[in-house]
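Sample pair:
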Amino acid sequence: MGRPTPTSRTIGVTAAAAVVFIASFLPWGTIRGTTPQPFKIDSFPAMELMFSVGGWNSHINVLGLILPNWLVIVVALAVASSCWLKDLGHWQAPRHLPCVLAGFGLFQSIWMAFVLLGSGRGTIGIGLLTTILAFGGMIVALVRGGRPHAKDDTMFRPDDFG
């Protein structure tokens, strides 16, 4: 019996999780604002402020529940880990757990995009777009599944050529 080999599903999910991790360091968006004008004098104009948000320094508020956006990174790594543990024969997550976790990551990322765009003063960045696409790809990889494990270590079977 040979070593267990990862399925194409695991490779796809791992690649998507790596993209989510890398995208967490890219700008997820920008929020613009102004300081209050202390005096109603034209010589003291209000200052314009610009804040950059990312996967590590922002959060969303869903019905009063504050969710830090670094949960998205943790979820992506947890889904990839569950796929690897299953392929290596160590542990199998409940059947729908990886899809539910990936769906949560996609939901939180899309919610962040709505928060930024709905504020009227925010814009979304390349990191957030990349995260949304990566979670979409992760869900596709999870739903499509992967090729079955190889039965042995040989690369070709005799009937492949005849």
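The chain has one domain: 8-145.
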